[in-house]
Amino acid sequence: MLPCVCRLQPVLALLFFTLFTQGENCPATCLCPDPHTVDCSGRGLTRLPDEIPLDVRRLLLADNWIPRIPSDFLVLYSDLVYLDLRNNSLSHIEPGTLSTSSRLVFLDLGCNNLTEIPKGTFGESRSLIKLRLGNNPYLSMVNEDAFIGLTSLRELELERNALSGLQVGALSQLPSLRLVRLEGNPWVCNCNFANLFTWLVENSHKLPNGIEGMECSLPTDGRRVPLSQLSQDSFRECQITLTLTDFLIIIFSGISVSVAAIMASFFLASTVHCFQRWSKGTKGDEEESEE
């Protein structure tokens, strides 16, 4: 019996050490179900908790009142893979905050008070696979280069925000994109929406339900129209307007070039004429001097 106990002693010691040290560096108001997970969800926090282990990989901060993330946050927690900040009071993300998130795979910023996603918000987060930005009722602007560098991003959620338009470049810069949610936004069916409509039709397989259920309002009377009832012909006027503009630019350029050519020809002819008169005058003087 004694030899068996001796053989089990290292295992028992390791188990005791694990149980004893688990949660040793855990923030006082949080739970740490494993050595690399910190769960501070629903704790009424108004700021990030102190004493978060530096080797944390999963940080759950949902359902609190946190208004901001320090700009150096991910510099300290470089091993972070999963960050859940859903349902807090974030109104903006400071520039550079996420630029060092080299290992971050999952980021949830849904159900906050974000108003815009400016250029370079996520830096070069090349490991990011899933990004949740939905249910931000004041989010009305996404910069065309907001997602630049997110080469591994597969899922992007932008549903139920305040977006009336979105530049196609913001989506076309995501080579790995497989799923995008855009429903529930107050899209406006104007000429700025024409390119996005074309992208949505061509990439409907990336939308959970295609374009079904998505609507946009007419700029004339604000009436909501399902996108499924629209076609490329619905934006024909925008194409004609653009073509006419290009046509006018071409005409103006042609007129400008013609006027410049006429003026150059006139100047050249005047110069030649003056030179000929000067040559004749010189010859006349020479003949008079010889006589």
Automatic annotation (TrEMBL):
Transmembrane segments: 247-269
Compartments where located: Cell membrane
One cellular component (GO) term of this entry: voltage-gated potassium channel complex
UniProtKB keywords: Cell membrane, Disulfide bond, Ion channel, Ion transport, Leucine-rich repeat, Membrane, Repeat, Signal, Transmembrane, Transmembrane helix, Transport
UniProt keyword annotation of Signal present: yes
Membrane topology listed for this record: Single-pass membrane protein
SMART domains (UniProt xref): LRR_TYP, LRRCT, LRRNT
GO molecular function annotations of the record: potassium channel activator activity; transmembrane transporter binding; voltage-gated potassium channel activity
PROSITE patterns xrefs: LRR (PS51450)
Endpoints of the signal sequence: 1-23
Keyword Signal assigned: yes
InterPro entries linked: Cys-rich_flank_reg_C (IPR000483), KCNMA1_auxiliary (IPR051432), Leu-rich_rpt (IPR001611), Leu-rich_rpt_typical-subtyp (IPR003591), LRR_dom_sf (IPR032675), LRRNT (IPR000372)
Complexes and interactors: Interacts with KCNMA1.
Protein name: Leucine-rich repeat-containing protein 38
Species whose genome carries this gene: Cyprinus carpio
